[in-house]
């Protein structure tokens, strides 16, 4: 039986890490070239990938004492600072690489699904940094509860 604490932590973790996904989903849904079911399938595939990676990473708790697992949250801070310093020392990039998800070739169902999933995963670094320590500290039933909450919340986001 899931505890109220597990349910609440799962809901808060999802909402906090996926607020930006709402805006990305709005962009996809507003593009007439994308079919709604492909967007939804892509979003579930992307979130599923993030959940899977976080779940696999949570087994680090078998090797590292659980009181140190929370320190994994420092990894995205380190990565962000490293990128900021690299940008600061290099200056602005010489050219921007355009990302065109609206190309004429995006009519393929699979291509649309993969496009949405790719954007979701690329945008999911913050998700993993939150999900991984939670998965590492939750019991098996807590992990199942968290996964189910994330799937239900993904459906809510797509709705």
What report would you give on this structure?
- The protein has 159 residues and is mainly alpha-helical.
- It has seven helices and no strands.
- Helix 2 crosses helix 5 (109-122) and helix 2 packs across helix 6 (125-137).
- It is globular.
- The two termini are 27 Å apart.
What are the SSEs and their pairings?
Blueprint: H1 4-30, H2 36-57, H3 66-69, H4 74-90, H5 109-122, H6 125-137, H7 140-158
Helix pairs in contact: 1-6, 1-7, 2-5, 2-6, 2-7
Instruction: Give the class from helix and strand content and strand pairing.
Output: mainly alpha
**Strand element count:** 0
Distance between the termini: 27 Å
- How helix-rich are the residues, as a percent range? over 70%
Helix segment tally: 7
Choose one word for the global shape: globular
Sheet bearing the most strands, described?
A: none
Order of helices and strands: HHHHHHH
Which residue ranges are poorly predicted, with pLDDT under 50 across at least 5 consecutive positions? 95-99
Overall residue-averaged pLDDT value = 82
What gyration radius follows from the Cα positions, in whole Å? 18 Å
SS strand fraction: under 5%
């Amino acid at each position: 039986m899931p505890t109220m604490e597990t349910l609440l932590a799962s809901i808060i973790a999802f909402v906090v890490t996926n607020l930006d996904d709402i805006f990305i989903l709005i962009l996809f849904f507003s593009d007439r070239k994308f079919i709604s079911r492909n967007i939804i399938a892509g979003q579930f595939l992307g979130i599923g990938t993030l959940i899977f990676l976080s779940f696999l990473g949570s087994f680090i708790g078998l090797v590292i004492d659980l009181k140190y697992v929370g320190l994994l949250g420092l990894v995205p801070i380190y990565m962000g600072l490293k990128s900021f310093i690299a940008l600061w020392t290099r200056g602005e990039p010489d050219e921007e690489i355009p990302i065109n998800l609206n190309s004429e070739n995006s009519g393929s169902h699979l291509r649309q699904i993969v496009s949405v999933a790719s954007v979701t995963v690329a945008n999911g670094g913050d998700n993993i940094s939150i999900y991984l320590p939670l998965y590492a500290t939750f019991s098996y039933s807590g992990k199942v509860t968290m996964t189910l909450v994330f799937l239900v919340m993904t459906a809510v986001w797509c709705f």
